[in-house]
Amino acid sequence: MRILFCEAAEVLLNGAQVIPERTIKAGYKFKFETAEETLQNLLHK
Q1: What is the mean pLDDT of residues 16-35?
Q2: CA atoms within 13 A on the CB side of 11
Q3: Which one of 4, 10, 16, 30 has the fewest beta carbons within 10 angstroms of its own beta carbon?
Q4: Is 16 helix (H, G, I), strand (E, B) or coil?
Q5: Residues 6+ positions from 44 with CB-CB distance below 8 Å
Q6: For residues 12 and 39, is the Cβ–Cβ distance under 8 A?
Q7: 4, pLDDT greater than 80
């Protein structure tokens, strides 16, 4: 993925660490735990 996005990959994968505490506490289950997992899934479709 870093090859495809070059410098932008660093921002996407290592940027701000946001934790959706309120969403998780409300019971929402994310299909993918990280942005990297999500992007890999999107790229492989």
Answers
A1: 88
A2: 4
A3: 16
A4: coil
A5: none
A6: yes
A7: no
The runs of H, that is alpha helices, within 1-45 are 2-5, 7-14, 21-25, 35-43
Indicate the residue type of 18. Answer: V
Q: What is the dihedral of CA 11, 14, 17, 20, to 10 degrees?
A: 80
Contacts of 9 (CB under 8 A, 6+ apart): 1, 2
Residue length of the chain:
45
Is 0.85 topped by the overall pTM? no
Long-range contacts, stretch 29-37, CB < 8 angstroms, 24+ apart:
36/1, 36/12
